[in-house]
Each structure stands twice: as structure tokens, then as C-alpha cells.
Amino acid sequence: PQRLARTARNMRRARLALEAAVDRFLTAHAFVDPHGYAGIGKPGLLEADEELALRMVTRLLQLVSGGDYPYRLDRLEDLVAALRSETPPGPRTLGGCRIETRAGDILVFREVSAIGPAVPAQTALFWDRRFSLELSGDLTGVTVGALGAEGVRQARAAGLADVGFEQVPGPARATLPGLWRDGGVIAIPCL
Questions:
Q1: pLDDT above 80 for 69
Q2: Quick one: CA torsion of 48, 96, 87, 24, rounded to 10 degrees?
Q3: What is the C-alpha separation between 158 and 46, in angstroms, rounded?
Q4: What is the mean pLDDT of residues 37-41?
Q5: Among 45, 137, 62, 59, which residue's Cα sits nearest to residue 97?
Q6: d(CA 12, CA 29)
Q7: Which whole number is the average pLDDT over 118-134?
Q8: Is 141:74 a contact under the CB 8 Å cutoff?
Q9: Has residue 191 got a pLDDT over 80?
Q10: How far apart are CA 145 and CA 117, in angstroms?
Q11: Residue 177: which of 87, 110, 86 has the closest Cα?
Q12: Which is nearest to 124 in space by CA: 148, 151, 144, 145?
């Protein structure tokens, strides 16, 4: 029993040290965008040893997906190996996220198809485990749901899409929360 307890303490200490190293690397090399996506510079991912790289990518996937479940190790290892390769891979998906390489950054977006159905609007709402929304006004018949391609089209047609909206990468733009009434987008609360 004492040997088992000591082994457990040692494993806990090693895990805490690894998590602290991941925190330091993410602080130095990663970013979280207020529009619901995150990224890490490829040089930072290359600098990290394999275990840290796996844990950093896992942390970014969990942050963007809102999930805290483990990913299949073989899929995660394949993803990290591809991201660290000299030739950037095309877009990939894992755990409800879309992963792309753009201009030297590895970006993690939420997959539109992984977002749940629209929910009734409330004055305070934590939507898709990514956006804390505070809404006001008449919310009768209003729902909150992902914009998707149709919502992006409607937002542009209705003049809701400003310069800031257009600067959000397309995969993130489609996953922004939209306020919907009678099948039409009436607002984008996070802009």
C-alpha cells in the first residue's frame, strides 16, 4: 500500500509538471480569439517535444469544442504529426473541431455540424460553451443558433456584416452565434 501511494504521488507530480509546461508553452505560443476559435504558431508546436505538442493540441481542441473528453490517441498522434510536417496538411477534423494551417499558424475552429440546435434566447446565456451572451430587448420568439452559411448570407444581405465580421475567418464566422426570429438573422451579439 505504501509503495502504491508513493507511485501515485510521483505520477501526480509528473502530471502536474507536464500540465505546467503545457501552460507555459500555450501562454508563449497560442492565442484565443474572442470570435470562438484558437490557434498556435507552428514554430511553437515544432519547438515542443511530442508529449507537450499532444497535450497542447488537446487543450486547444477542448477549449474550442467545449468538451473535456479524451480524444483517441492514434487520431491525435496522426493530427499532431501532420501539423508538424513540412507540408501543411489540408483541413482536418477531430472532436467537433476543424483544424487548418494558415500563414504559419495552426487554427482550431468549431465545426458547424457539431453545434447543437438553436435554443430560446435569454437575457444571460452561455452558448455552445464558448460565448457568454447578455441580451436585452424583446426576446419573444428569438432563438440563438449558429449562423452557418445561410446566416452569414443573411447577415451580409441585411447589413449586419461589418468590416470586423468580414475579418473573422470563414470557418469561425459560420460558428458565431446569431439571433434568429422567424427564420431570419436579426443580430450577431458577439460583434
A1: no
A2: -20
A3: 43
A4: 96
A5: 62
A6: 26
A7: 95
A8: no
A9: no
A10: 6
A11: 110
A12: 144
Task: Please report where in the chains the cell 464558448 appears, as a residue.
Answer: 130
Name which residue leads in pLDDT, 89 or 114: 114
**Grid cell for residue 166:** 468580414
Q: What is the pLDDT of residue 53?
A: 95
Residue whose C-alpha cell reads 515544432 in the numeric block: 46
Q: How do strand 119-120 and strand 142-146 relate by DSSP bridges?
A: antiparallel
Contacts of residue 142, defined as CB under 8 A and 6 or more positions apart, other chains included, come to: 120, 121, 135, 179, 180, 181, 186
* Secondary element (H or E) of residue 56: helix 50-65
Task: Give the predicted TM-score (pTM) of the model.
Answer: 0.88
What local confidence, expressed as pLDDT, does residue 75 receive?
Answer: 95
* Cα–Cα distance, 116 to 76 (Å, whole number): 24
Average per-residue pLDDT in the chain? 92
Question: CB under 8 Å, gap of 24 or more: what pairs does 114-119 form?
Answer: 114/65, 115/145, 115/146, 115/175, 117/145, 118/143, 118/144, 118/145, 118/146, 118/180, 119/143, 119/144, 119/145
Bridge-partner residues for 142, per DSSP? Answer: 181
Q: Determine whether 118 is exposed, middle or buried from the number of CB atoms within 10 Å of its CB (0-12, 13-18, 19+).
A: middle
Of the candidates 44, 26, 38, the residue with the CA atom closest to the CA atom of residue 83: 44
Q: Are 139 and 122 in contact (CB under 8 A)?
A: yes
pLDDT above 80 (res 137): yes
